[in-house]
Predict the 3D structure of the following.
Amino acid sequence: MGEYDRTGNGQSSKTDWDLRSILCDIAKNWWVILLIACSVAMITYTVLTTVHKDRYTVKTTFAVMGRGVDANAASSLSATYEMAQKFEAILENTILKKKVMEELSLSSFPAKMNASIVPESNLMELSVTADSPEMAFRILKSVLNNYTSISDYIIPNVVLETLQQPQVSGVPSNQIPTKKYAATAFLAAALAMAALIGLFSFLRDTVKNEAEFTRKIDADLLGVVYHEKKKKNSSMLITNPARSFLYVESLKRIASRVRGRLNRKGGKVLLVTSVAENEGKSTLAANLALALAEEQNRVLLLDCDFRQPALHKIFEIPEKDGKDFGKVVLGKESASGVFEKHKDTNVYTGICRNRLEEPSLAIGGEIFHRILETCRTNMDYIILDTPPMGMTADAEELAEYADAAVLSVRQDGALTRDINDAIDALNQKEEKVIGCVFGNVYPGFGERIGNSYGYGYGYGTYSRAER
């Protein structure tokens, strides 16, 4: 690890937060955001419709005139203001309310009454608000029939002439935009949930970019493999002409670095693993084998992920075509012809086509040990594709047979502590981890991939000697 500057000196400064990772987490959890937002909108709508009670208002307009004055002549504004104030007292008078209740056969007074003046005029408006438009109308009519019995004592010199007869209204006077509030609640909940997911993404201690890798991970960075868009039914092998130059050259560069470190250790057997599923370990193992074979090496690639074998899918080999390496190591099939040459390459594969019920018997068996020892003399390199370390202990058992190990680390995948724990587990007896491959990396916004030479792949933070 001395070849790397883990303090970050000499590297471009990057913040601990990665906008692309946050946005990806928000996009991946769109259904959670939608579910929460819809739930909040439904709750808001239900609460508003349940708690809120519609009220209906019926109004009538009076002209305020002095008694004995020509009905066509307007009364003074001061008399109108005085009338409005005194009429409020009339409306609150218990005698008037009792008369209305008696007339309508009510046990209580279920309405609110209000009197107000029309600005700059001698007009006064009387309104009655109740739970139903019919009740508001009946109470207002009753008030008009009975108010004179009180008003003649309080305002004897004023006459009220009705200008507008009350009418039943079917529209609530306190109507609220329930759908609008529900839509607002939906948007607010969606934004809040997106912000919460973004916060969790920021706080989750994963490796989000190359700078974080060199600072957080206790192993050397062998190289960066940028995200490669996969088309349906298109192989991710470097021999596929559809793969980009960036993708192919990145993996060849990594394979060259792996070969150099294996040779310095005097080793042949390389273990390729990861912490979790879908970290790209099997694809990495297959491409390392192909890249090493292109350097005129005889390479044996063994599918040792007996629980979830994947190499037959990567190489597009039918499950029932040929011998099963898992059955061979269990002694259920002969070893003759189990290793198949991949097309016109120097890669030989031992394919496990079906998962084994007891993979520990295969790993710890004498047959597996003899096969590896025999192949050490016949092959230049042997690559073991193992199960994820976070799922089983198989990789740790297989590490006993390996001379070196490479860990596949997916961008924003496994937690940092889990990656470092896996490295420590592999290095428990002797230092076997020669480095990690940082895969499926999306460049940051505005980040340039490549270098001044124009080859479209990044070398990562390596020493000048290794470049």
Remarks:
- The chain has two domains: 56-164, 208-441.
- The first helix runs from residue 19 to 28.
- The radius of gyration is 41 Å.
